[in-house]
Amino acid sequence: MYRILVVDDEEMIRKLIRKYAEFDGHSVTEATDGMDAVIKFKNGTYDIIIMDIMMPELDGFSVCREIRKTSDVPVLMLSA
């Protein structure tokens, strides 16, 4: 089982990713924007992050730079 952080400002996209990940037995935490993602990342442990690029507050690239200061967790970036 992997611990996945899903970061997207679109609720339907988060729910879809959650549905398939949990079906495969993985644990999913959702973040609604870049700032929420940074906070959840600092307070949790994740095996992979699936993140949208374009989000309010902090975009995906900025969040990734913040995460890279302390971790090399894999990050999968989503784009429309």
Sheet of most strands: 4 strands, parallel
The backbone outline, from C-alpha atoms, is globular
Helix content: 25-40%
| Residue share in β-strands | 15-25%
Description:
- With 80 residues, this protein is of the alpha/beta class.
- The longest helix has 13 residues.
- The mean pLDDT is 97.
- A 4-stranded parallel beta sheet has the order 2-1-3-4.
- Helix 2 runs parallel beside helix 3.
- It is globular.
- The chain is 39% helix and 24% strand.
- It contains 3 helices and 4 strands; from the N terminus they run E-H-E-H-E-H-E.
- The termini are far apart.
Short key terms for the protein model shown above:
single chain; alpha/beta; 4-stranded parallel sheet; 3 helices; 39% helix; globular
Layout of SSEs?
Layout: E1 3-7, H1 11-23, E2 27-31, H2 34-42, E3 48-52, H3 60-68, E4 75-78
Helix pairs in contact: 2-3
Précis, in short:
With 80 residues, the protein is α/β, with parallel strands linked by helices. α2 (34-42) runs parallel beside α3. It is built from three helices and four strands; from the N terminus they run βαβαβαβ.
